# Entry
Amino acid sequence: MIFRACLMTAVRRSAALLLSLLMAVATASASATSEPIRIASKTFSESYVLAEIATQLLQGNGITAEHKLGLGGTMIAFEALRTGAIDVYPEYTGTLIQAVLGKPNLSRSGLDAELAAMGLTLGVNLGFNNSYALVLDTKTAATRGISRISDLASHDDLQIGFSLEFLNRGDGWPELQKVYRLPQRPVGIEHALAYPAIANGQLDITDAYTTDGELDVYDLTILADDQGYFPRYEAGLLLRDDLPPKVVELLLQLEQRLDEETMRALNRRVAIDKESPAGVAADFLRDSGLVADAVSSAPSRVSRILRNTGVHLKLTSVALILACLTALPLALFLSRFERLARSLLYITGLIQTIPALALLALLVPLVGLGQVPAILALFLYSLLPIVRNTLIGIFNVDPLLKEVATGMGLTANQQLLKVELPLAMPTLMAGVKTAAIISIGTATLAAFVGAGGLGEPIITGLTLNDHKLILEGAIPAAALAVLVELLFEWLERATIPAHLRE
Amino acid sequence: MPILSLESAGKQYPGAAALTDVTLQFKRHQITALIGRSGCGKSTLLKMCNGLVRPDAGEVRVFGEAIDYGNLPVFRRRIGYAVQGNGLFPHLSAGANICLLAKLEAWPEAQIEQRLEELLSLTRLSRPMLDKYPHQLSGGQQQRVGLCRAMMLRPEILLLDEPFAALDPITRKGIHQQVLELHQAEPSTALLVTHDMREAMLLADTIVVMDNGQVVQQLDKQILLEANPDSAPEDLLHAMLPGELE
# Structure
């Protein structure tokens, strides 16, 4: 009983420590971002460019603003805005009506009313409609005589690849297939990779946005939406109603400034000519006379890598330390109750099966955006390897040694700390090492919730189809994993006698 | 008042009786050998004496009282325990193994040193050996470290569960001699579980022969020797045990 009380105190103590550490991280990131206006983008180049235009417009007028790059999807961005983790992001009427509110028949005024009830306004109408469209290689279209979506019904051999979002969202493929009675079975493909795939002949059809820069470059035909299926996707800036009036006033200068042709040209410069969204945005602001001296001030590659690596290390190490502080006492306590131990393994196993991006998306409404949900997710992922290995290490201690320890007169507590734990140490350390390496890999997804790190260049690179940018994140991440592996090997050598190492 | 006794003690495992109605008294400062075939219940009997096995019938009285199962660790520290294959903790050096209990009892450093010195000279272990891990020691050295560990706190009772079974005959002979010297220097009430009648006849004052969970004979070694001056120990055991010897 004394033993149990002792461990309970330890568990309580580490739980309190965990909470206070999390709060510290939360307040640190809150105080760091409460000042500037936070403008976010989703993971496609048009969103990057629009968010960059808005950010530089504010900065050019003396307002502190920062661009939170590439949030992982509509739900994360919208929840972040609703909960106040960000202030502005570019959005489209169709997406709000269909994907966010799920009310396909809602009118524009109905939409505005729904948003107002949440303290939001689709405030700046940028002036273009970026609707979904299906596009087909022009040659194939000509030889087969396809010009409308309804023509596809009689060409079931055509290969279709859709972005995952389009494949699954309510106003995407599922309804489209029903309305047009299409027989094809599409596959999921990253949007930026779909055009090269069509050019290579690996794919015939994909979903596109009518302002995609690629439409001008690749020889693609937009299929007519002859049943009028796709709703309008008027682009605007979605704002929180508590924004300072001066900010809203400045952003309203963008009203009706971008028609489809202009937007397509800007997108083309980013997607095809590989210019940075920041540079393209600066040019636009200068050319349209909104900010005379707009220049993009992108940090150098080296300083960017250093900053991202630093953030990456911070995310993984804080999560790992928290996981150790929680998992170790928990596992030690549970090692005395085997049935409980197994159910805990089952629960932590369940957490492990939640896809990282889904877990992040679930955490955003609860704890907001930034490093807190990222650390929380990494913490949860690190639990299983540490808990499992600690328990296995303890369960596998030679029963003779356990009996000797008991027979000699060691208390249960002493037996655990002096005999079982040291003998379980190699297995335990292997668990911590596994958790560390998994964390380094998973932390690349943290960029989806605006936590930064090495995932930022990877996700931006994926969005802009820029391999250099992808490698800028992937190579340091791989190097970090190798370094951590070496660090743990050294740590094992330093702390565990040779004959006990695995 | 005997220091250690069992009164009608029994233990039932699912499907089989490990020990049935055992009543025994052990004499102070004597070595008693428990001998019998594998599975005859001798180890179960030994483990009853330090509470590792709790009888489901009868009782075990140690130091004049029935065992208090609510306070075993304190009770067990008055009883030395050494097992087959030495049971040394592989993550601790030989010295740390020996001193573990004294450290947990918060003995002063000087007292630990003094006791260690006594044990080293009694077992003829050398200082440098204390820094080695168990796997770096020979079988005989490991066994002596195991004995030192069991005797560190000067226990009044010593429980030895086939401690020498895994040793080669030459090493075993040397250890036997040391056990006798140790017992001479620091007499304790010792129980030795063995299946080797030569070992029993050499070390023990009293021989308890067990079979099938029951005590078959309890004999004074002196009387046994005087009655059978010319018999080999194996033949003596054969004569006392029902059935064929292995």
